[in-house]
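Second attempt. The first submission of Alpha/beta-hydrolase had a stray character pasted in from the spreadsheet, which I only caught after the job came back as garbage. Lesson logged: always re-copy from the clean sequence file. Corrected sequence (396 aa) follows.
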Amino acid sequence: MITLVYKQVSGLDLQVDIHPPWLSPPGIDTDSAIEEAPAVLFFHGGGLTVGNRTSWFPYWMQKRFTEKGYLFMSADYRLLPPSTGREIVEDVVDLWVFLNDPSLSFKFPELEGRAVNIRQGSMVVAGVSAGGLCAYLAAVHCNSPRPRAVLSCYGMGGDFLTPHYLTPKTQPFFRGRELLSPTDPSLRPFVFPFAPTSQSSAPTSDSPLSYNPPGHPTKPGYPSNPRMLLARLYLQLGTYLDYYTGEHEPSLSGQLREVLQAESEVIDKKGMLREAEKVIGENVLHLFPQFSLSNSKEDTIIWPPTVLIHGTDDTAVPIHESRNLYRLLTSSRDDTNKDIGNSGAVEDLLIEVPGAEHSFDLAPDAEEKYGEVFEKAVEFVHRAVFNMTGEGDSAC
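This time the job returned cleanly.
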């Protein structure tokens, strides 16, 4: 593995880890001085508030793709707060431009210094939880070339216009865990209006997971990094979208809450979406992936082939999000193919995992339980990258 700085901003080095392929990709001359390989660009989870490029790392995904000859890349991005989704989009786009530089080449110690380049037009975006949202943002905003495919595991952002994001909670809602206090001294610096400290006011892209030791007097094993609680706190308060967009005054969440309430009483779903789009406004509408597929503009984005994996019992990111995005994707495919007279519609894939909670793929027995799911998702992406139409097809 090698680590590169893809961007420097606000005193930060934003980094990306690049893991070598285990096998030469199909159709490549292994005697050449430089090999080309398709690539997967992965974004970590953490509610956009915590973690780094090694957090919640999907070894099942890395293993399967590198065995197929892919480079596997995992990247940092700026975290909320004080950054917002605007900065995260900037990071995702700048990373995409960096990695698509045709002069970029990687030399891995594991390959005895052999140079490997990214095969142009063959890069996939993937992510888990909030990283799935980053993958969606890449599908919307990255181009020249566009991502070849999208792989999302229980991704956020398939539908931000729900009570999960907009309604304050008075009962435990995530795995039955206790409600949090916004006045907790460890959380208060991260709650709007901010009382900034050196811990919370400086932008960061690296906030590792940490826990109290087993011998802790009151909370053994409890997160010792307060950022690990922030996404849950913001969801509990019904203000997550304020932190995501930076729109605190007036509260965007509060305004959208009113639109959501009106939809249940006065207007229909389509009317609610039109009203929500007006409330969100042009400045931050680009942070809502669903509007790239559901609005009526002529420049509506045509997404790459997309595979969505989601547990039916997810309490952190309800499965409705992936179901809604899948619905929007298939609807947009139908409309596009009608317009261009194409009967060979692009297919997307939604894999629902019965009874599975958030992060089910990281459980110790995940390979035994969900190995077939993992295989199906990776094969879908692999076929999309190489323009395959079936199991027996060869790469184009």
